[in-house]
Write a structure and sequence with these properties.
Layout: E1 3-12, E2 15-24, E3 27-31, E4 43-46, E5 51-54, E6 56-61, H1 74-83, E7 86-91, H2 102-115, E8 119-122, H3 139-142, E9 149-150, H4 159-171, E10 176-178, H5 194-199, H6 207-224, E11 228-230, H7 236-247, E12 252-256, H8 258-262, H9 283-295, E13 300-301, H10 316-319, H11 330-341, H12 347-362, E14 372-382, E15 401-411, E16 414-418
Helix pairs in contact: 4-6, 6-7, 7-9
């Protein structure tokens, strides 16, 4: 199908420009205001009053297949991503079988080929058992098919093992992506940090368990020259460690999630939809993350979309499974709170963090491929998980009043979501 998008405000080269876009055979062609395409057009879409962005990219999602398809499948996860304006996602490896060998990874690749409506790129594991402790995975065999290596959900527990992993990843031209969590610093029952955990009589997940491991890994990245990326940063100390590492020229980047940028532990309620790892921390941590996003220390935003069954999320904040969903509401939440309400960052910075920086860091291409997100910036609505296409419904943003709806998502030239 050949599609002409007219009258939209198109984000290009860091600026918004009024121009026409022609989508043909999966490719994108640009026309100036005074010119029109001469090609045969199957459909003309008037984007008057709408923004046209590069398709969003999320480098941290959990689609649960193979192994846990009762929580989410690649098909439902990809549809949810398209609903949220995402055209590329990278799937974490806490699956069954664990993608630590090529035969195990191939099971996931086959399902992606069959069921994904957007670009879905898997991670390979760092360790064979995806436990932060076992022997290294078959990185050489996995490398051509994965975006990077991670044991997300588990931190690599020894410096020697992480150094070995970095050396091998660097030789393969791949990033090491770290869920930073020193298990020796957890203690007690791990729920949420700060006053909320204390009020329930439990010790939370300490900030130190995150930042101490990042501190170690930054030194190893400097030593090995390996590209290092930190998942779901949640503490002010981590932000400062990464800020100083960048000043020193170390090849380090990081992400944080919408919930860490918009909430503090004062917003928590005793529902499973507030249970995630790392936890939502206090206002000082939230503000440090916001400052880091504004000044570029925090490179990108990733949702850590982690669906579970309704039963698994029905046991309150103490006993529910870790993980919340957010693919389908990330943009309106961030646009409403950070751009419109708090005026913390301009819209251009948000688009860079959600679309440009992830592709650049992970080498996910782009160019003239027709991956686009069309947004109505003025549309207001209430976040209602019953409208989600994901099998997971547990989001901390339930009931929020937001603006900025996704009107259409185009992936590889195909319309994969339309309001």
């Amino acid at each position: 199908m050949t599609i002409l998008l007219t009258n939209g405000k198109v984000y290009s080269g860091g600026l918004f420009k009024e121009m026409d876009l022609l989508i043909s055979k999966g490719r994108l062609f640009v026309f100036a205001d005074e010119k029109r395409a001469s090609a045969s057009i199957d459909r003309v879409i008037d984007c008057n009053g709408k923004f046209v962005f590069p398709g969003f990219t999320d480098v941290h999602v959990h689609f649960r297949e193979p192994g846990f398809s009762y929580k989410e499948t690649i098909r439902t996860g990809a549809l949810a991503a398209a609903h949220g304006g995402y055209t590329t996602v990278c799937t974490m490896p806490n699956l069954k079988p664990v993608p630590s060998t090529l035969p195990a990874l191939q099971q996931q690749l086959d399902i992606i080929e069959k069921d994904a409506c957007i670009q879905v790129i898997p991670y390979g594991t760092i360790t064979m058992e995806q436990n932060g402790r076992s022997a290294l995975s078959d990185m050489e065999a996995l490398a051509p098919y994965v975006c990077a290596f991670t044991d997300d959900g588990k931190g690599v527990q020894t410096g020697d093992l992480m150094e070995e992993a970095m050396i091998r990843a660097k030789s393969l031209g791949k990033l090491i992506v770290a869920h930073a969590e020193d298990e020796s610093l957890l203690g007690g029952t791990s729920i949420h940090d700060g006053k909320y955990a204390a009020s329930l009589g439990h010790r939370g997940i300490s900030s130190e368990s995150e930042w101490k491991q990042v501190e170690r890994d930054v030194e190893l990245a400097a030593k090995t020259g390996c590209g290092y990326h930190v998942c779901h940063v949640s503490t002010k100390e981590t932000v400062e460690i990464i800020r100083q590492a960048k000043k020193s020229g170390i090849d380090v980047t990081c992400e944080t999630g919408p919930h860490y940028l918009t909430m503090s532990d004062q917003d928590l309620e005793d529902f499973g939809r507030f249970k995630m790892n790392p936890p939502i921390r206090d206002a000082e941590d939230r503000d440090a993350l916001r400052e880091g996003l504004a000044d570029g220390t925090v490179d990108m935003i990733a949702t850590d979309h982690a669906p579970h069954s309704a039963e698994e999320k029905s046991k309150g904040i103490l006993n529910s499974a870790f993980g919340v969903v957010g693919l389908e509401c990330a943009f309106p939440v961030l646009y409403s709170r950070l751009v419109v309400q708090d005026r913390l960052i301009p819209l251009t910075r948000l688009i860079d963090a959600m679309a440009i920086a992830p592709r650049k860091r992970f080498g996910l291409g782009g160019g003239d491929t027709a991956d686009l997100t069309i947004v109505d910036p003025d549309a207001r609505f209430t976040i209602d998980p019953s409208t989600f296409l994901s099998m997971g419904k547990a989001t901390p943003f339930e009931g929020w009043e937001v603006q900025g709806s996704i009107d259409m998502t185009v992936a590889g030239g195909n319309i994969v979501w339309e309001k």
